[in-house]
Design brief:
Distance between the termini: 13 Å
Oligomer: single chain
Strand order of the largest sheet: 2-1-4-3
Shape: globular
Number of strands: 4
Helix content: 25-40%
Largest sheet: 4 strands, antiparallel
Length: 154
């Protein structure tokens, strides 16, 4: 078992486009409404290649290896990376409560504990202006939520 780290920084309005954050699913039938067909086409072309966070954390494993920001065998190492990610952006968090140092330490501790038993971690923070920062740690080989998903690194 190991853990992959993912991070995304972008406009909140882009993050809100849930259609591109979901895997395609089953193809529509010939009688499907045009909006279903359009959503499927968009998901087929966009989901696999964009670095935007998926709706379900485990679905990061369906993304290309280029979206991985780090890989660790030990949960503590992954937690250290998470801590650095949070520290880098904490001064820009829109909420001063979210930036509280004690709160961030507790978030990292909780994340390490979750990774220890094979869980995933997904955090997101609004930054000043209209920017959103997302960071995730995904347990791989196997993933507890989606054990059929293969490691993107092969």
């Amino acid at each position: 078992m190991h853990h992959h780290g993912y991070a995304w920084l972008g406009e909140k309005q882009d993050f809100d486009k849930e259609g591109v954050r979901r895997p395609p699913g089953e193809p529509p039938t010939a009688g499907s409404p045009q909006e279903v067909i359009d959503r499927y086409r968009q998901a087929v072309t966009a989901f696999p290649v964009i670095g935007m966070p998926p709706i379900q954390t485990a679905h990061w494993l369906m993304k290309p290896p280029s979206t991985i920001r780090g890989t660790w065998s030990e949960p503590k190492e992954a937690g250290e990376w998470l801590s650095l990610q949070l520290a880098e952006f904490a001064t820009r968090f829109a909420s001063t409560q979210d930036a509280d140092a004690t709160r961030l330490v507790l978030l990292v501790r909780s994340a390490v504990e979750r990774l220890t038993w094979g869980g995933d971690v997904s955090l997101g923070h609004y930054l000043s202006g209209t920017v959103f920062h997302s960071v995730a740690l995904v347990t791989c080989s196997p993933n507890r939520a989606e054990p059929q998903l293969r490691c993107p690194l092969g």
